[in-house]
């Protein structure tokens, strides 16, 4: 694969980026045991170099107008993408989270393949962590996992061998037959009808008076802070069994309760209208996680922070998610990402600044779940101990919450504007407190 046009949603993410709003995903992974930092960096470089997608960069094209394409970087040097940083021995995890937040502030260099990896080591102890940054144009959450999994011992050999196998496509005429013309026209008419319906839903859902909590109404500073929390998966599942719904419903209710606790501790009045969460939903078919192009839709969920009772908050979240699922991820205001598939490339290039500014009118906080393989993972023989996913902040957003399950625990990575949310540690602590409150309600 040497050249490939960016899919519409990939192109949207590419043009949405600005210096203050880099559009990359991230993950901070901690490993057990001890290992030499230089050896880990060399191993990462070797495995990353064997993943073809990581050798691709974005270049502009003449046609379609406003479009861009992935092309193989002929001067690709993996050493420009894998770096080592030494941290103090004391409180290694806190220092690693701090440096991860600072590194997430920095946009990826657009002339290079858009990804970076950092090996974070504690001086002379052999303790290490790895920070991964992937541009959202390169991968959505599921594809990021499929790409990133190639660095692990258990997957590296199999994934790289499979990635190098390309299916040959037989040649065919570029002139469409009459049946193809009719089919194409019918498909385009149906797509336009869907786009109009989704666009109308988005307009109806837009607000000109967004949620007024001071931290979320603050102007973006371009700074980033990372907060981390670990929740017991067994506790989440016990609550789900008692309440019904899904584990993701429980986690959304945990986020809602944590926001309420955080606001009350700050002495802020609770908002008259509940904040809205944008909850991404994958549109990938099973077994297609490695397919190129972002495949996303989303649900809009009101987080009931004004409700005092934790169980009532959970019940409200379950009802809202049931309505969203009944409507489906391809319909309604939350499916705004689907609109990207119906817009020409030039519209993405010219309309990105407007679209980025409009996100604030649609939702207040991003809450996303990222699936990981269920098997135990390791790097260079060191077992993966904890992993905290990180999502980008849209223009006008001050908080994004990403969740993933690994090793019987739910790991939460909270990315916040560092100036708007200087007390992020209070919010992360609220996640643990809210889960405990829900567990008490579930067990009587």
Automatic annotation (TrEMBL):
It catalyses: an acyl-CoA + a 1,2-diacyl-sn-glycerol = a triacyl-sn-glycerol + CoA. InterPro entries: Acyl_transf_WS/DGAT, O-acyltransferase_WSD1-like, O-acyltransferase_WSD1_C, O-acyltransferase_WSD1_N. It is an enzyme of class 2 (transferase). The keyword Transferase applies. Pfam families: WS_DGAT_C, WS_DGAT_cat. Its EC number is 2.3.1.20. Signal peptide: none annotated. Pathway: Lipid metabolism; Glycerolipid metabolism; triacylglycerol biosynthesis. Keywords: Acyltransferase, Glycerol metabolism, Lipid biosynthesis, Lipid metabolism, Transferase. Residues 6-250 form the O-acyltransferase WSD1-like N-terminal domain. Residues 293-438 form the O-acyltransferase WSD1 C-terminal domain. SUPFAM superfamilies: CoA-dependent acyltransferases (SSF52777). NCBIfam families: acyl_WS_DGAT. Belongs to the long-chain O-acyltransferase family. This is Diacylglycerol O-acyltransferase. It comes from Streptomyces chryseus. The lineage of its organism: Bacteria, Bacillati, Actinomycetota, Actinomycetes, Kitasatosporales.
